């Protein structure tokens, strides 16, 4: 019942993910952070089978950092996305990872958002979602998104998406973690920033 969302602006990326891990009818954990920060300019949001998702994301993150250590230069978001795609595609033949990913990055003030699934497919997109919540919010994002979206408008869109998931998804989601990636790095948005504004 997980859900992750990604939205790209001109110079930022917003990533959101629910904070629960469930198995069958049991809630196992309600404070998980589904958005891994890599080298302060790449965020990797994930959903998938518990265990598989953690192992896969840790392997990917550590290898991206290892590449940067070996070469002396940080891996760009585009290069990291293609590395992840290749890793998932190679894994299909030996040890498939049942994990779907959204990668966001900001390199030299250029934002990138990448949609990846367990089969190793990759697409650069303006907005995307994985999980059961995606059924309810892709149409909403399609109607709200425009190319010149500002960070504040993006936060409002994510806020509307989270409200729609909470309202329409049968299994209630306890909370969401939302992070923004800019040229200054990655930061967690506070509950106050995500709360609806009263005007």
TrEMBL record:
UniProt keyword Acetylation, yes or no: no
Assembly notes: Component of the proteasome complex.
Entries under CDD domains matching the protein: proteasome_beta_type_2
Protein name, entry field: Proteasome subunit beta
Keyword Nucleus: yes
Coarse class of the protein's main subcellular location: cytoplasm
Species, as recorded: Paratrimastix pyriformis
Cellular component annotations (GO), alphabetically ordered: proteasome complex
Family classification: Belongs to the peptidase T1B family.
Highest taxon in the source lineage: Eukaryota
């Amino acid at each position: 019942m997980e859900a992750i969302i990604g939205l790209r602006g001109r110079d930022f990326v917003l990533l959101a993910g629910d904070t629960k891990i469930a198995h069958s009818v049991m809630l196992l954990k309600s404070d998980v952070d589904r958005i891994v920060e890599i080298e302060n300019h790449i965020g990797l949001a994930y959903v998938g089978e518990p265990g598989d998702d953690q192992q896969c994301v840790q392997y990917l993150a550590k290898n991206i950092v290892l590449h940067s250590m070996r070469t002396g230069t940080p891996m760009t978001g585009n290069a990291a996305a293609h590395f992840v795609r290749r890793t998932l595609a190679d894994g299909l033949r030996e040890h498939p990872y049942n994990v779907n990913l959204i990668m966001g990055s900001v390199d030299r003030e250029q934002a990138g958002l990448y949609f990846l699934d367990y089969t190793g497919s990759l697409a650069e997109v303006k907005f995307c979602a994985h999980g059961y919540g995606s059924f309810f919010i892709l149409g909403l994002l399609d109607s709200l998104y425009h190319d010149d979206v500002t960070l504040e408008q993006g936060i409002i869109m994510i806020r509307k998406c989270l409200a729609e998931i909470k309202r329409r998804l049968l299994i209630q989601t306890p909370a969401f973690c939302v992070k923004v990636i800019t040229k200054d790095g990655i930061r967690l948005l506070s509950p106050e920033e995500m709360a609806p504004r009263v005007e």
